[in-house]
Write a structure and sequence with these properties.
Number of domains: 1
Order of helices and strands: HHHHHHHHHHHHH
Largest sheet: none
Helix content: over 70%
Length: about 290
C-alpha cells in the first residue's frame, strides 16, 4: 500500500470515528434521560439486548457462517472489558454533567498508545505521545480537580476509560480477521448473557417513554460501534485514537442546548487542547512524520 492509499484510509478512518463519536454522544442523551427513573443494570442490559435483536435479520440472511469464528476467546475478552467500561460509563452519565462524563470516558486515547504497544506491538511515535499529552491536559482542564476530579463517581469514569482503551485495542486486533459486524454481534451476545444476571434482580415493567430512550440508546450505540470498528480496521489504534475526543465537544453542545450546561474558561481551554490533539493525528501531520 502506497502513501496515498494510507492517507486515504486515514481520512476515512477519522471520518468514521468522528461519526461514531457523534452517535455515541446522542446515545449519552438517551442514557441521561433514561437514568432519571431506570437503574444502571437495566440500561446496560437493554443496550446489549437491542443490539442483539438488530442482528437477527442479518444472521438469518447470512446463515450460520456469519457467527463462525476462531477468535471466540478474544471476543469474550473484548466483551468482558467492554461491559465493565459500559457499566462505569453509564453510571458517570447518570451522576455527572454529560460533557464531564464524556471527558472521563473518552480519555481512553491517553492509554491506547501504550496498550497498543504492549499487546499489538504497534510503534509509538513522538506525535502520538504529543497528542496523548495534549489530550490529557485538555481532560484535566475540562474536569478541574476542584470540581470533583477525584471523587468516587469520577474514579468510576476514569476506570471505565481504562477498560474502554483495552477494548478499543482488542477491536483493532480482531479487525485483522473479523468483519466489524461480527465483532459487534459477539459483544452484544456475550454482553446480554452477562448483563441479564444483575438486571434480573431489579426487573420491573417499564413505561413507554423509558422504553423509547432505552431502545434508542441501544440502536445508536450499535451503529456507533460499527463505525468505530471500521475506523480501527483502516488505521492503527494509537494513530487515530485522539479523534475520540470529538465526543466531548459534541456532549458539551448537547449539554448546553438541553440542560444549560455552560462551559467555563478552563473548559474552553481544555477543548482547544483536545482539538490540537486531533490535529496531530491528521493526514497532513502524519505524512510529514513519515518524511
Amino acid at each position: 500500500m502506497n502513501i496515498f492509499d494510507k492517507d486515504k484510509n486515514l481520512i476515512f478512518a477519522i471520518g468514521c470515528l468522528t461519526l461514531s463519536a457523534l452517535l455515541f454522544s446522542v446515545m449519552g442523551i438517551c442514557i441521561r434521560y433514561a437514568s432519571h427513573s431506570v437503574d444502571n443494570f437495566t440500561i446496560v442490559f437493554f443496550r446489549n439486548l437491542v443490539g442483539l435483536i438488530l442482528f437477527l435479520p442479518f444472521i438469518l440472511k447470512q446463515g450460520t457462517s456469519f457467527v463462525k469464528t476462531e477468535k471466540l476467546w478474544m471476543h469474550t475478552w473484548r466483551s468482558l472489558i467492554g461491559l465493565a467500561a459500559m457499566y462505569g460509563f453509564f453510571y458517570a452519565i447518570a451522576h455527572l454533567k454529560l460533557s464531564n462524563a464524556m471527558v472521563f470516558t473518552y480519555s481512553s486515547p491517553i492509554f491506547i498508545p501504550l496498550i497498543a504497544w504492549l499487546f499489538l506491538k504497534e510503534k509509538i511515535t513522538k506525535v502520538m505521545l504529543y497528542a496523548a499529552g495534549l489530550g490529557f491536559i485538555g481532560v484535566f482542564c475540562v474536569a478541574k480537580p476542584d470540581q470533583g476530579l477525584l471523587n468516587w463517581v469520577s474514579m468510576v469514569g476514569i476506570a471505565s476509560s481504562l477498560f474502554a482503551s483495552m477494548a478499543f485495542v482488542t477491536v483493532r486486533a480482531l479487525t485483522q480477521t473479523e468483519p466489524p459486524e461480527r465483532i459487534v454481534f459477539y459483544f452484544c451476545f456475550i454482553g446480554s448473557l452477562l448483563s441479564i444476571i444483575p438486571m434480573f434482580w431489579v426487573w420491573r415493567p417499564y413505561h413507554l417513554q423509558e422504553l423509547f430512550f432505552l431502545i434508542t440508546a441501544g440502536v445508536l450505540a450499535n451503529i456507533s460501534q460499527i463505525f468505530m470498528s471500521h475506523a480501527y480496521r483502516l488505521a492503527p489504534a494509537g494513530q487515530i485514537a485522539p479523534v475520540n475526543y470529538m465526543a466531548i465537544i459534541f456532549a458539551g453542545i448537547w449539554g448546553f442546548l438541553l440542560w444549560n450546561e455552560t462551559p467555563d474558561v478552563y473548559s474552553l481551554i481544555g477543548f482547544v487542547f483536545i482539538l490540537l490533539a486531533i490535529v496531530l493525528c491528521s493526514p497532513i501531520i502524519q505524512k510529514r512524520r513519515l518524511k
